[in-house]
Amino acid sequence: MADPVAQRVYRAPCPGCGAPVVFQSAQATHAVCAYCHSMVVRSGEALQRVGRVAELFDDHSPLQIGAAGRITLDGSAQPFTLIGRVQYLGDAGRWTEWTALLPGGSTGTLSEDNGAYVFTRPVDAPQPLPAAGQFTVGANAVLGGKAYSVAANLRVQVVSAEGELPNRPSLERPSQVVELRSADGEVLAIDYATDPPQAQRGRAVQLPELALSGLKTESASDDRGVRQFSCPNCGSPISVQLASTRGVTCPQCHHVIDLSSGIGGELKHARQAQRVTPVLALGSTGRFQGESWQLVGFQRRSGSIDGEAFSWDEYLLYQAQRGFQFLVDASDGWSLVRPTTGAPDYTPGASTARYLGQTYRRTDAYAARTDYVEGEFYWPVQVGDRTANTDFTAAGGNGVLSREQSGNEVTWSHGEKLPAAQVKQAFGLGTELARSGRADAAPWTPDLSRALIIFAVVMVLLFILLVLMGSCSDSSGGGGSVRGAGGSYGGYSSGGSHK
């Protein structure tokens, strides 16, 4: 692919080691020396050393500096080349932001987070921005006349950088990043590391649509993709297959191990008291949406509504080009869902939410807990993790929508209900799927199913009351007692946070 920019390349020796440092972008003010990791800034015809960055965290990304592709901007396809990257560590894990050189010397950012990608460009703040602390996660905000939902308000720290950078990253102190999402899929990120804050606007993209070339070779990815270490609890060998894995379980002692600091960091582990056997085997592949997805993680979650306890299972599926999605096995049926980029049109506490032109009605709201995990996960999952969940269902259809809030982040997920026969066919299973004991999910009808249940309960209570009254009138010393038996309710879950 041709170089998208026709301009003079700036080159000067690194003040730290003398190696050549190249600037391709006229907008790049800083760069990291590839040899001594010095952070340098252009000063006239020379470079000035302003610090040193740490070694890059090996995230096994398929992207690398020099990779080129095409992105549709303002209605036309434009070439770009990756010229730098910054690695961040936030409250919910690590992610990478790649600097993309566009025609004319301008730059954009390709954010890479757990197999999901968002392409943004710098924009002028739509209005004087409020302080980061004034953005409440889960609340709505209007900027520049456009409505957004506050998806995250994170405290982040730059941990490393490479190549050319449009601004000097703050290596000395953490800063606040606010992420806003709109109903039409737009992402607005505000970085408070500078004064005034910097804003970037964009949308989600998938790797195939970028037509990337110059990626890490498949053989190199294979050689570096599998990481091995010993379990910190029992010493058994553990192999980590996915580059994005931040949590894994030991196949021998089933302890949950936190890899968010990398294998070279301190390995934290937590015991799981009781093992759960998944219906679908870890490592197996299922075919959905015309692609083969590998089952890499499993978790059992639970909640309660009005004192009635219920549980459900979530299977984490992975596909190299499309990232992650969740296959959910609840008592009301199977669902296939994935985190959304945009935030549905929703006011916290409202009875409806609107997404992609479809209205969804709230069915339940409850606190959820992670009870058991097995396999690999792209966030540092732990037994005992808790979220506040709200579930929605499309009236008369199979669409499902879920909202999860945990601390300083809100995640929306969207998908559809699946018949058990489709799940069986996807994994090539026989009678073993019947062990789940799940019935197929039926399209939801507003108020009808719940009204029938309430009517039946009322009729039973009236009948028992009449029997007791008759018993009291016929016997002076008689007494009676009524004991209700509660059944479990299977709630739908979004499948967890995107980090």
From TrEMBL:
It comes from Ottowia oryzae. The keyword Transmembrane helix applies. Residues 78-206, 282-419 form the DUF4178 domain. Keywords: Membrane, Transmembrane, Transmembrane helix. This is DUF4178 domain-containing protein. The chain crosses the membrane at residues 448-468.
